[in-house]
Amino acid sequence: MATENQNVKYVVTRSPKSMGAAIALAFFFGPLGMLYATIPGAIVMFFVNLIVGLLTLGLGLLITFPIGIIWAAVATSTYNKKLISGRM
């Protein structure tokens, strides 16, 4: 056990996120799949898809779904870069 004079060091480890999994989940499940890569991005894209889908009778999803996939890939890449550099 540590006493008052000893320094206790903790190491918190996180594993990197898989780029392939992020892209596949966003491709097959849309904003729900984006939850793996970015929670705020998934919430934003859920509402964007809902509004665009209703206004364009679903045709706008041909544009918003690929945007979500790209967003998931960029978010995963950013997460992994921050993890490697130790800024997390």
Automatic annotation (TrEMBL):
Domain of life: Bacteria
Name of the protein in question: Integral membrane protein
Regions crossing the membrane: 21-48, 54-79
Organism field: Bacteroides reticulotermitis JCM 10512
UniProt keyword annotations, A-Z: Membrane, Transmembrane, Transmembrane helix
